[in-house]
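Good morning C.,

I know you're traveling, so I'll keep this short. The sequence:
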Amino acid sequence: MSKFTIKPFFQGLLLLALTLGAAISSQAQTAANSAQGGQVIFEVLASEIALQRGDAGLAYNTYIEMARQYKDPRLAQRAMEIAIAGGSPDLALQAAKTWDELSPASQTKPKEVLITLLVLNNRWSDAVKPAIALLSQQTPAQQEMLLLQLQALLARAKDETEALRAFYEIASTVKIAPKDQGLLYTYAMSAEKAGRLDIMEKTLREILRKNPNDANSLNALGYSLADRNIKLPEAFALISKAHQLSPKDSFILDSLGWVNFRLGKNAIALEQLQEAFTMKPEADIAAHTGEVMWVMNRKSEAEEMWRQGQKLDANNPTLKETLKRLKPDWTTPEQPPNSSWDGRFAVKIIGITEAQNQGGSGGFSLTQEALKDTLEIRNPVGGSIAKIIIMPGEASLERDGQIVTAIDADTLVQNTLGLPLPARGLSNWLRGEVRPGSEASVERNPQGQVSKINQDGWDLVYGWGKNNRLDKLTMTRSSNIGSIDIRLVFDHPND
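The tokens, ready to paste straight into the viewer:
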């Protein structure tokens, strides 16, 4: 007689199902709830088998629905693990939120995971509240560890300003030990982004009292003073010392050029700034170099330098502020608060395999009012396909009387309509502007009009008509499904 055995994989599934089923059924005192526990066993097994067969979506949905129905955080945790393994960060984040909501307040692990997923999804502002709650439960050593982890993740932030402001809100709720010089420096930089220059200066001076040869702190404090055009002799002394300590640091050399400009030494300032830009082309340095050229009445050279800066990062705050203040002729004029566009679109996807090739066409209308974008998509004969409303941090799509909401408009459109339309940045791009919040590159034609933008993985090529009106826009990108080509043609009924 052969011996009956259970393979380890199914043995693990059965143990998981029985544990969860027993935990849930033990909460009840009736036979009905015992039956409920049996149902959980079946659903867990079915979900895991579906996962092994490649249907991660079914497994995720079952787990997250069960978690909400039975109020069991372990089911939400399992849903999150499935989403992470399947490369679905939005779904993982939703499951992590549910896991945290269902868990006892004393449990810190769900909050730790939720905070990490939020910042990895570049939702730093949303991470502030759970991070502060977690810090209130931690020992000083644990608080230091959490801040160090957040500090390490700052380098991955798409919007550095938003991330640093969030870091300041979080770190301000605890006392950072003086020995943590790196954390104190990051805290100082975050205070500056939050508009607390007093805190920034106080923190940097505290670092320099402990370590007077900290080149980064010397440079940061000196640059802050020079940029505000105050205490210029002290600013020059601080930056000069930093330059002696790190003579090959392009950012310190940029600061030295900037303080010399503030002191009226334009010739030496330009020489230092040009050398800094040659060492490391950065949009900040381009902004400063261009401004010195502008003041020296070398305006064509200044404009060319700023164009180079826009190719590097058109969303750089220093460069944007400089262009807004000095207003060279070729910059895009300020637009009215409300705008609308009508036209037609054609989408072509060349897949990795021929079977993945697809395409579609139709019409669209986009209306912008304050911070609200309304995008209507129509089929080729004019019938409505969907209406998408986009606001900061929120998007909703209405189709066939049903409304679906999401955090990210692009993901919402892709998942609901199957069309890779870049909805969230569209109103900015149609103006010939970059979308705030992520790095972008801009190129201009000889007339100063935007000819190309690269942002969020999209390459945009502009075709301008008479009266400075946009006639067509071509948008291309590579993705995991192949190459995507979108062509927009605009209607101008008043022409």
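Safe travels,
E.
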